[in-house]
Amino acid sequence: MLQRRISIKNEGIKQYEGDAEEICKSIVNDCWNNVFFQVSSGHFSLFYMRDFSMCVEALIKLGYKKEVLKTLHYALVVYSRDKHTSTTISQDHKGFNVFSYAPDTLAFLLYSLRIADAKDLIEIYKPFLEAEIDYFYDIIIDKETGLIRSDKVFSSIKDNSKRRSSCYDNCCAAVISREASNLKLHNPLKQYNYEELIKQTFWTGEYFKDTKETNYVCGDANTFPYWFKLFIDKKMIKSSIKKIRENNLDKPFPLKYTSFIPKNFMFPLSLLANNYEGNTIWVHLGLCYIDVVAKVDKKLTKYYLEQYNKRIEAHKNFLELYDEHGKVYKTLFYHSDEGMLWASKWLVLVK
Description:
Blueprint: H1 2-11, H2 20-31, E1 47-48, H3 49-61, H4 65-82, E2 88-89, E3 95-96, H5 103-115, H6 119-124, H7 126-140, H8 167-182, H9 194-202, H10 224-227, H11 234-246, H12 267-272, E4 281-282, H13 283-293, H14 298-315, E5 321-322, H15 343-350
Antiparallel strand pairs: 1-2, 2-3, 4-5
Helix pairs in contact: 2-15, 3-4, 3-5, 3-15, 5-8, 8-9
């Protein structure tokens, strides 16, 4: 990353030709390396289950089903060899967690297998998948409550944040339970009613809280309960959008995790990339949020996509991250990544 920071300072980011649609199509093609879909054509030129899975439905709609299935096969080969799932697979095909075991890895894997209708892979890797579901249940779940354990910190969508039993992570437990049943896999989580548990624990009547102990409005907590289709009540969706907008999490464009900079970040990154996951604007989170907005407000969806369009064409690229004011995120040691696979989601949303 530091090497790329120096390179970008000297040479700038890659410039793609054409309008926003042409730029995004070129980026998606560049992210396919003939083995798997990379997170980006920049410094995240490796495999992340979370980032790939967010794009699976869009990639299939764009005609990449064969490549999606190859990517899932690749991940399962590595995971089964390593005997566990992991957030990330390196360029030399080794799985590792950033920065610890993450509840969403298995959730997104099972979700993607269903969305891709990967029946052969599910059958072949059924013993491994069931062992991973049991492993998740054994080490992650508080058996008394059914919720994610709050006595330990696990990695998450905000992988540098020390959150305990967040709304997002509990949504992932709900997804694992649902998809295990959908895929006819052994499911020790089926004893819990996750929709009811999540609503009782995190829903205030207006929005979902980040954690049981907090009360602020958080971007991921008010996106993924709906993005995962755990909750489909349009009144709830509209209420969460209203709170997001009241707290300016979508300003100048979507979406920020919080309106402030939390103080629970891991030490090294807070020095090298200050406010990396604070009140910065994350594009993958923003696109998932726009997926949700599109269910209830077409006008607002169009406005958000136009904000993205302006930035894609201004930078001639699809960037990872912006600061709280909408400028490209960069520090002395880090520069926003480029050529993000997430461009696939934008392509489908604008259609």
